[in-house]
From TrEMBL, chain A:
<dbReference type="InterPro" id="IPR016174">
    <property type="entry name" value="Di-haem_cyt_TM"/>
</dbReference>
<dbReference type="InterPro" id="IPR005797">
    <property type="entry name" value="Cyt_b/b6_N"/>
</dbReference>
<feature type="transmembrane region" description="Helical">
    <location>
        <begin position="78"/>
        <end position="102"/>
    </location>
</feature>
<keyword id="KW-0812">Transmembrane</keyword>
<feature type="transmembrane region" description="Helical">
    <location>
        <begin position="142"/>
        <end position="163"/>
    </location>
</feature>
<dbReference type="Pfam" id="PF00033">
    <property type="entry name" value="Cytochrome_B"/>
</dbReference>
<keyword id="KW-0472">Membrane</keyword>
<dbReference type="InterPro" id="IPR027387">
    <property type="entry name" value="Cytb/b6-like_sf"/>
</dbReference>
<protein>
    <submittedName>
        <fullName>Cytochrome bc complex cytochrome b subunit</fullName>
    </submittedName>
</protein>
From TrEMBL, chain B:
<dbReference type="InterPro" id="IPR005798">
    <property type="entry name" value="Cyt_b/b6_C"/>
</dbReference>
<keyword id="KW-0812">Transmembrane</keyword>
<feature type="compositionally biased region" description="Acidic residues">
    <location>
        <begin position="21"/>
        <end position="36"/>
    </location>
</feature>
<keyword id="KW-0479">Metal-binding</keyword>
<keyword id="KW-1133">Transmembrane helix</keyword>
<keyword id="KW-0813">Transport</keyword>
<keyword id="KW-0408">Iron</keyword>
<keyword id="KW-0249">Electron transport</keyword>
<feature type="transmembrane region" description="Helical">
    <location>
        <begin position="175"/>
        <end position="194"/>
    </location>
</feature>
Length: 272, 278
């Protein structure tokens, strides 16, 4: 087999036979260059396929078909609670990332322990954010409130879905995914609540350890895994921190994307 | 495979270029030529080469079944779409730009503004640093976990079994954790308990009553979790925790049942006339 190119594959020659504008020529040259190295065309085919699949939606909804909009317009505000919680999640992610620049999870005695007795490094970093950092007080406030708003919106979203019967066939699996998401949202809240390592955080953590210890058979193992022991310590705080800023963001973001993707494909269920 | 004969006629043919049916391959030994392992015998696929779909069609077993099902499902979907009088959203819809996008952006701006307003006006407080040696008088999780915290305080409901000599089967705290699992589990299986096409509460007074029971119970169990902060007899609070939701559920059921007749008349007229029951 010779290495010489056959005419079919002489893309340069093929381009010369055509009357191309500079833009077209540039585009084709780039495409051919990349395709030779990365097999772009194969992936373009997959993308094309995906494009058509993504654009598939269920047929017109009952409301649209029979012009029932005027019959239930008063439900509409409740249909935006899902968007609201997603937005709050976004705000929490951004403010949380900025908070993360200044926070350090450690139960060692902090620099501010001289003024506040018993203050740990993590407590002092919160104190620094709230007292010394420009806009730090607002930043923490935004993070906390967006978390509260997200949980509240998620609860109300669930109630809306329940009372409009939107969980029924074919949407059962998305309902279960929603249950998982609401639980993870609360775990998000709980782990975040523990990070300042103040009195409330410590004793809420204590309740958490006792709850996991009370699980039959696996209790001690769960307590070790989640809280790093049977009493609260540095490893507890570290685990809560990693769960809050590393594990949950990946998992929850992915699940939210799937949740919304399914809604997109199945369409929104209105009451009849 | 119409011109298969012409290819088999060629005497010095080195390869079966059409991908070959079984009969074809039996009739075509490789002509006694040496087998070349350097790839020089490979030729590009031509029109006779079976496509991947054709190759798939020849498979057996599970993959064959899967393929057949996909074909059937695709055909069914297509038939349904062709029969239906529905209009696909792709064709007829509210334009994404600018209508939908502008509306979404304004809603998003308003919501984010609300969050910023809340955080500016009601900034959070931070308590004293953690101190393992002094238990605070009030231990509470965040408000959205009150219901779960309340479920941990159901000790009086943990049954004492006579056969165990009046001792409890489960520790009280195990019972509390189990109560959480039961509540979340029940909510998760709702779609498998309540089926059918009914959507509005008035169409299904019972399930609406269950929902109202759940909502009121979430509030009362939250109140129970902060019982030391509520100026009320604790036993009375405990009883009310379970009584109020039931009362609210019964009232909901009665109201919806009463509304139902007149309401369903309207709904039925509109709904069943357009979508006759199968």
């Amino acid at each position: 087999m010779s290495l010489e190119k056959k005419d079919d594959h002489d893309h340069g020659g093929w381009m010369k036979t055509k009357d191309l504008t500079p833009i077209e020529k540039g585009f084709l040259t780039t495409l051919i260059y990349l395709d030779k190295r990365l097999r772009i065309v194969d992936y373009l085919e997959i993308m094309e396929n995906l494009y058509y699949k993504v654009n598939l939606q269920m047929p017109k909804s009952h409301t649209e078909q029979y012009n029932l909009d005027n019959k239930f317009w008063y439900w509409y505000p409740l249909y935006t609670l899902g968007l609201f919680s997603t937005l709050a999640y976004g705000v929490a992610a951004i403010s949380g990332a900025i908070l993360g620049f200044y926070y350090s999870p450690s139960t060692a005695a902090g620099a501010c322990a001289s003024e506040i007795s018993g203050a740990t490094v993590s407590y002092c970093s919160i104190a620094f954010i709230m007292r010394d950092l420009q806009f730090g007080f607002m930043l923490r406030s935004v993070h906390r409130w967006s978390a509260q708003v997200m949980v509240a919106a998620v609860f109300l979203h669930m109630l809306r879905v329940y009372f409009t019967g939107s969980y029924k066939e074919p949407r059962e699996l998305n309902w279960i995914l929603g249950i998982v998401l609401i639980s993870l949202t609360m775990v998000f809240g709980y782990t975040g609540y523990l990070l300042p390592w103040d009195q409330l955080a410590f004793w809420a953590g204590q309740i958490g350890v006792e709850m996991s210890l009370s699980i039959p058979l696996a209790g001690e193992w769960v307590a070790q895994l989640l809280f790093g022991g049977f009493t609260l310590s540095q490893s507890t705080l570290m685990r809560m921190y990693i769960i809050h800023v590393f594990l949950l963001p990946f998992v929850v973001t992915t699940l939210i994307a799937i949740h919304i993707g399914i809604v997109w494909m199945q369409g929104i269920a209105e009451p009849h | 495979m119409t011109d298969q004969d012409t290819t088999t006629d060629t005497p010095n043919r080195r390869l079966v270029t059409d991908g070959g049916t079984d009969a074809d391959e039996e009739a075509q030994p490789d002509g006694g030529e040496d087998v070349q392992a350097d790839g020089s015998g490979i030729v590009a696929p031509d029109d006779e080469t079976p496509t991947w779909r054709e190759r798939k069609e020849r498979k057996v077993g599970l993959s064959r079944l899967t393929y057949e099902y996909f074909e059937r499902a695709r055909r069914e979907d297509q038939d349904l779409r062709q029969e239906s009088t529905y209009v696909e959203r792709d064709v007829l819809a509210f334009p994404t730009w600018p209508h939908e996008t502008v509306r979404n952006l304004s809603i998003a701006a308003m919501f984010v503004g609300m969050i910023l307003f809340l955080s500016a006006t009601l900034p959070p407080h931070i308590g004293n640093p953690a101190n393992p040696s002094s238990t605070p008088a009030v231990i509470l999780p965040d408000w959205y976990l009150y219901w779960s915290f309340g479920l941990l305080k159901l000790n009086p409901l943990n049954p004492e079994l006579a056969i165990l000599g009046g001792s409890k089967l489960m520790a009280d705290r195990t019972y509390g954790v189990l109560a959480n699992v039961v509540v979340v589990g029940f909510v998760a299986i709702v779609p498998f308990l309540n089926k059918g096409s009914a959507r509005r509460p008035v169409e299904q007074p019972f399930w609406a009553a269950v929902g109202v029971f759940g909502v009121v119970f979430a509030f009362t169990i939250s109140a129970l979790s902060v019982k030391n902060l509520i100026p009320m007899n604790v036993d009375l609070l405990f009883d009310l925790t379970f009584l109020l939701p039931v009362v609210a559920g019964v009232i909901t059921y009665a109201v919806l049942k009463t509304m139902r007749e007149g309401y369903m008349y309207d709904l039925n007229r509109r709904y069943y006339r357009l979508r006759p029951p199968k």
